[in-house]
Specification:
The chain has one domain. 44% of the residues lie in helices and 15% in strands. It contains 7 helices and 2 strands; from the N terminus they run ααααβααβα.
Length: 151
């Protein structure tokens, strides 16, 4: 089937709908463990550290769940995860550890029940999202925003 387009923008929107590929891969627990061993993989929990302190700071989590929703799949993925994931390694914060020990005592600070992300070395994953793609409106808004900044 051949489709005629009135503008290159209409063509770009349809092209982006076709080019964004999403597939799910399911592994058995046995196969998952085999992959971890074979590729020397490490398993991490995904947590939102600031959500308890700042419940309004859940935008990233909202995008994450919006991406995986059935509605997103049906609508050609207006919420998309960029394929680039950046990892950052952060060392345990020695000053924070000293302050916690002074406040709570060494035994309590290093007990399994005591939770503080600064006590351990950690790996941080940065995942970027694109919102309202493909969309003519988002391009329009971005162009107007750029024009206003140049003034």
């Amino acid at each position: 089937m051949t489709k005629k387009y009135n503008s290159t923008e209409d063509f770009r929107i349809d092209l982006e709908k076709e080019l964004y590929f999403f597939d799910e891969l399911y592994l058995t627990d046995e196969k998952y463990k085999e992959f971890l061993g074979k590729f020397k993989g490490v398993e991490f929990d995904i947590i939102m550290v600031n959500e308890k302190k700042n419940p309004q700071n859940r935008e990233h989590k909202d995008y994450w769940f919006a991406f995986w929703s059935d509605r997103n799949k049906v609508n050609d993925f207006p919420v998309r995860i960029n394929p680039e994931i950046k990892f950052f390694h952060k060392e345990a914060n020695e000053e924070t550890i000293r302050n916690l020990i002074a406040k709570y005592g060494k035994e309590k600070v290093f007990s399994p029940e005591f939770k503080n992300r600064f006590l351990k070395n950690r790996l941080i994953a940065k995942i970027n999202f694109e919102i309202n793609i493909p969309s003519e409106r988002i391009d329009f808004l971005l162009k107007n925003e750029l024009k206003q900044k140049k003034r």
